């Protein structure tokens, strides 16, 4: 088999890249180890930056998002039993965020690729990358019938998430990895209930962080800070509701609406950056190259930003034979990635309760929250990062 760009992974990065390349007249094939049902059913992110929404609309995959997504002009920060609204639109000249689940974005992108005759090979196994430092790299794998296949391409895009086979192909002698593991986990639930609030609520509490988000008028998404080593079996529905009520409580009697919990799970939290994001003809994008803790809602949006840079660089190569944008790929992406890493680390440090913090450090955290919610300059900084920093080409 042959194609121009071989893409490993049908997450937001791989699917978006394939669609962007298609619109530029560049062929690609995506190979994915999971089934279509699995990628379209995995519950993950929910918040799309303004730039992600604008891109989806510009490339013709935003129609359902505009109908079913929720447009939020502000967020609420809660601490000491009081609510403080950050009016993001007012502070960022009208920008906002859209709550639209990642698996819905995936469904829309798969539908667009399928409609355009794009090739996505699901259920592949034993994926390996070869000859990346030549001008004819190859991806070998077993297809869903177990047959060995070789995909010859000009370039390989490693969009295979944090645990995929692409990143380790960058020789360790030139690969620098920056990492921070947090002593926090997030217990996420999906609940059948109407929304308890019109906007997202990020709550800081002595018992730990809590987040109230939404999916639709019927389904809500909520998160609790837990110990990352906790077994989900230790968290009965009653215990979850007890903690959510306590951490989200306000002095003015705001009420959290309960409902049946239809899904629950715990994720660990880390910050991670790989530098460089490229080696020979291999380019990493999204979680394959960097991870942020979810507090800033940046992971999916960073994946989308990377592939915009990559698609543009590949376009310059195929249309004009220009290689400089490809050569600068790491530099271009990492400038913005590091700012999102900083913001995600900051939001995480600001909102979570650190079991190792002294009373002094806890008071500093509360002073930070007080400053943030009373200074227009500080609120503007939070808002411009939350709605998404501009692309830096
Ligand atoms: P992935 O989505 O991980 O996709 C990688 C794909 O590669 C997968 O489909 C995988 O099956 C495939 N793959 C892996 N190995 C192989 C292999 N060997 N062969 C073939 N295929 C392979 N981000 C936000 O922006 N906003 C949020 O609100 C937000 N909230 C989050 C909440 C939670 C609970 C979690 C877990 C994450 C959240 N994120 C959020 C992060 C976001 O989900 C990720 O950053 C995003 O999925 C990254 O996309 P990706 O395409 O790079 O990687
Ligand atoms: C959601 C996830 C996040 O990480 C976040 O910061 C806000 C909302 C969500 O899944 O809805």
Task: Detail the topology: elements first, then pairings.
Elements: E1 5-8, H1 12-23, E2 28-31, H2 36-41, E3 47-48, H3 50-58, H4 63-68, E4 70-72, E5 74-79, E6 82-87, H5 88-91, E7 97-99, H6 102-115, E8 119-121, E9 125-130, E10 138-142, E11 148-152, E12 155-158, E13 176-192, E14 201-203, E15 210-214, E16 219-226, H7 237-248, E17 261-275, E18 278-279, E19 282-284, E20 290-291, H8 299-320, H9 324-327, H10 329-351, H11 359-372, H12 376-387
Parallel strand pairs: 1-2, 1-12, 2-8, 5-14, 12-19
Antiparallel strand pairs: 3-7, 4-7, 5-6, 9-10, 10-11, 13-16, 13-17, 14-15, 15-16, 17-20, 18-19
Helix pairs in contact: 1-6, 1-8, 8-10
The structure holds flavin-adenine dinucleotide (FAD) and 3,4-dihydroxybenzoic acid.
Describe this structure in words.
By secondary structure, the chain is α+β, with helices and mostly antiparallel strands. It is 35% helix and 27% strand. The protein contains 12 helices and 20 strands. The chain has helices at 12-23, 36-41, 50-58, 63-68, 88-91, 102-115, 237-248, 299-320, 324-327, 329-351, 359-372, 376-387; strands spanning 5-8, 28-31, 47-48, 70-72, 74-79, 82-87, 97-99, 119-121, 125-130, 138-142, 148-152, 155-158, 176-192, 201-203, 210-214, 219-226, 261-275, 278-279, 282-284, 290-291. α1 packs parallel to α6 and α1 runs parallel beside α8 (299-320). It binds flavin-adenine dinucleotide and 3,4-dihydroxybenzoic acid. Residues 8-14, 31-34, 39, 44-47, 102, 124, 127, 159-161, 164-165, 188, 267, 286-287, 294, 297-301, 303 line the site of flavin-adenine dinucleotide (FAD).
């Amino acid at each position: 088999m042959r194609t121009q760009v071989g893409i490993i992974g049908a997450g937001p990065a791989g699917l978006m890249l394939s669609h962007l390349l298609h619109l530029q007249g560049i062929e690609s094939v995506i190979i994915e180890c999971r089934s279509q049902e699995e990628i379209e059913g995995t519950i993950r992110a929910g918040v799309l930056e303004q730039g992600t929404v604008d891109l989806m609309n510009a490339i013709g995959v935003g129609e359902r998002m505009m109908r079913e997504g929720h447009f939020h002009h502000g967020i609420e920060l809660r601490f000491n039993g009081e609510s403080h609204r950050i009016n993001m639109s007012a502070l960022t000249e009208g920008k906002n965020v859209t709550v639209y689940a990642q698996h819905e974005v995936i469904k829309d992108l798969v539908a667009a690729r399928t409609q355009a005759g794009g090739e996505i090979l699901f259920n592949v196994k034993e994926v390996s990358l070869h000859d990346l430092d030549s001008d004819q790299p190859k991806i070998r794998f077993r297809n869903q019938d177990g047959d060995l296949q070789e995909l010859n391409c000009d370039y390989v895009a490693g969009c295979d998430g944090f645990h995929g086979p692409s990143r380790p192909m960058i020789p360790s002698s030139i690969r620098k990895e920056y990492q921070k593991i947090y002593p926090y986990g997030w217990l996420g639930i999906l609940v059948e209930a109407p929304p308890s609030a019109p906007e997202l609520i990020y709550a800081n509490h002595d018992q730990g962080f809590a987040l109230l988000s939404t999916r639709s008028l019927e389904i809500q998404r909520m998160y609790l800070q837990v110990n990352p080593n906790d077994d989900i079996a230790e968290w009965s529905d009653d215990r979850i509701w007890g903690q959510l009520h306590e951490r989200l409580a306000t002095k003015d009697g705001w009420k959290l609406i309960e409902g049946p919990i239809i899904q629950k799970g715990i994720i660990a939290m880390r910050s991670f950056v790989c530098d460089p994001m490229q080696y020979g003809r291999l380019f990493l994008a999204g979680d394959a190259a960097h991870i942020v803790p979810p507090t800033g809602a940046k992971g999916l949006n960073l994946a989308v930003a990377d592939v915009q840079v990559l698609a543009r660089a590949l376009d310059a190569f195929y249309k004009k034979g220009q290689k400089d944008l490809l050569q600068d790929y790491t530099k271009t992406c990492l400038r913005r990635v590091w700012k999102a890493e900083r913001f995600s680390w900051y939001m995480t440090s600001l909102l979570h309760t650190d079991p190792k913090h002294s009373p002094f450090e806890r008071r500093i955290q509360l002073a930070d929250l007080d400053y943030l919610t009373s200074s227009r300059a500080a609120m503007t900084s939070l808002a411009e990062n939350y709605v998404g920093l501009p692309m830096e080409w």
